[in-house]
Queue: 3 jobs
Job 1
Amino acid sequence: MPETSIANALRRPRGPRKTSAGRLPTDPSMALTGTPEPSDVDTSYLESLLGYNARRAALAVIAVFLRRMDTYGLRPVDFSVLSVVAHNPGVTSRQICAALDILPPNLVGMVKSLQKRGLIVKKPHPTDRRAQGLHLSAPGQRTYREAQATATQLEQEVAGRLTSDELQTLITLLRKVYRR
């Protein structure tokens, strides 16, 4: 039996559905749950859509990511921000918003939260007096280093069904879709 998805885990459990006549269904594939088995449901049109497949793949990766990053108290967006700051010391909030396609008001709260946790610090920008650069603190560097190792490991596990060439092709094709 497949593992329950995050989306399905958040739904309320339901009992068997009754037919229009008020009886439980007699179709054997519907006997226990009241709904057809997933293998009996035609999703061929959905599976022909890029968005559907990208979303399903993302959900599979995110489910594992959420479990593993819970140790560090990081959501995917927090990890992304830490990664950009780690690889671009002194980066500004404006640059992060542009790089990650985050709205400025949303980033403000994230930066405050990461600052409050002691993971990042603000320092005056060397060339723009109006801006402040973001840097990882010592605890932030340690947390990011450990979280990055965890992310690398989980990516290898999740992408284990793909050859390295297939994985690189998939990443290249997905970038073609979302990059302008």
Job 2
Amino acid sequence: MAEHAVVVAGGGPTGLMLAGELALARVDVAIVERRAGQELLGSRAGGLHSRTIEVLDQRGIADRFLSEGQVAQVAAFAGTPLDISDFPTRHPYGLGLWQNHIERILAGWVDELEVPIYGEREVTGFAHPGWDPTTSFLIAEVELAEEPEWGIRRDALGVHSFGRLEYEIRDGEVVYMDRGPVRVMVTEEHVGPTTEPTLRDLSEALIAVWGTDYGVHSPTSISRFTDMARQATAYRERRVLLAGDAAHVHNPVGGQGLNTGVQDAVNLGWKLAQVVNQTSPDSLLDTYHAERHPVAARVLRNTLAQVALLRQDDRIQALRDTIAELLTMDEPRRRFAAMMSGLDIHYDLGEGHPLLGRRMPDLDLVTPNGQLRVFTLLHDARPVLLNLGDPGGLDITPWADRVLAIDANYAGDWELPALGQVAAPAAVLIRPDGYIAWVGDGTDTGLRDALTTWFGSP
């Protein structure tokens, strides 16, 4: 294996996204992956939330995923659906798409960026503090000799389900195909061992719930997951940086794991690139932990809460019904839906305008060269100074080779999920990850400091 400036351990969604971000910044990056190739046994994660689709849109590749997935309202809290169709985003929905397809599409993008992937290389040895498992689940892709009870079942043990791997979403409802592999999830009676589960383990778990294993056979994959929740105390240890599952693990309820990992990568990628390219000091990497550790900590907390609400007990059922009723009210629904979809993330960049530290909306701008979407300006993962005031009113000549300066007009309202309408700014400095690093009030007060903090000295 050749030497590279950055080596990404793991070719899953987080690793692929990080490698792509670094390649866009012309960093010499390579991926090492324990698998021999990109093939992924089992479907694992089932889709993308709204903010992750936005992130992919910022890089100009969202359509690759949208063309293969099933657009639907996927946000939910402890099984209570949370509709985001009225949210101010170009993507007020989620996307049903199995992880093996997500990885394949990302790998195609990374290949276009000429990032080498070295197979059959494995990194071991990380452990995190957190909460030990109290329950475990088997998930598998199998063939069945008999027709099962399709859909979700709840009982004293927990939640279980049968569904075809191939499905369509019609009028918001999941419709399974008539044939093909079956995806089964079953809660185990006791927390399972850390060894790889077997077909016999799956058969016994099915019999404990349904009284039959439906003639289960020919498994493509069988895996075990738990409600264990762990997070690294530090995302950086000298030259080692953690992202995705290497930084945080939790129960998959709510579908936030893959999405959080991909967004970790987009936060880290441009910062690491600037340090490697000697544009910014090493200390910029400390902001990665400062910004992303609280995001994952919040995910761990809400997954712990959701797992607790999914337990089968009369008292828990009463609590779950109460929470479900609360979430039919507009304000709680908006708040929780923004959290679950990743649209409410707010990095603490200090006092100031409400936009500071929040995602930049994908506005339709009017520029001297015609109409342009904000996300189009982010395709190359470069920072953008968007001037909505007097043309040429902001001089950033010392950073002209690093920051794209655009004069534009926008006449509409500024509205963000969970935050609502905010006062229109005179200018914004947008980081490559799509978050706002500075908000102008008609002057350049604080702009040079923000440029220096995030994009290096002049």
Job 3
Amino acid sequence: MSTHTLSVLVENKPGVLTHVAGLFSRRAFNITSLAVGPTEDDRVSRMTIVVDGASTPVEQVIRQLEKLVRVLKVVELEDGAAVERELALIKVPAGPQVRSQLLEVAAAVGAAVVDLTPDTLILESVSGPGKLDALLTMLETYGPCELVRTGRVALARGRETITDAGADGETGPGAGSGPAGPPAPGLTAVGA
């Protein structure tokens, strides 16, 4: 599946997530992953949205996001030019006959055991999406797993940030209104 990761800075106000989700719903765009959290500026939140490029016209998604009043900036993070992580909790059947094998698998991939009962264990894995998918494939051989994933978060590599100011030196809400400099390597400037 061809996915695209969008980093979207929005005003930290009630209802913004509803507006963004409503845009995707109205246009029948599919969200593969969505994570939202505060930034270093408490007036701004960052949404990391992963969309399926095969079924969703990414350029159209970006144009539509830019039209929303509370959206400050939209940047597409290029493959390989961003650090991407996801947290997963995975409950695995772990009877006495396979427990040591599961502990070896967990150690090999850097997953932590956060809960242990006589019949199950819960692993915590923080990794890139590909590594997490590989772990889940390995665990399928031990029986059905129960799983919860947080959704992907990502930051572009390098010194510059998407909150870097334009020529006016302003950051935070409204910073996108002035002229913007060239995007950092790995960032595709959108609506700047």
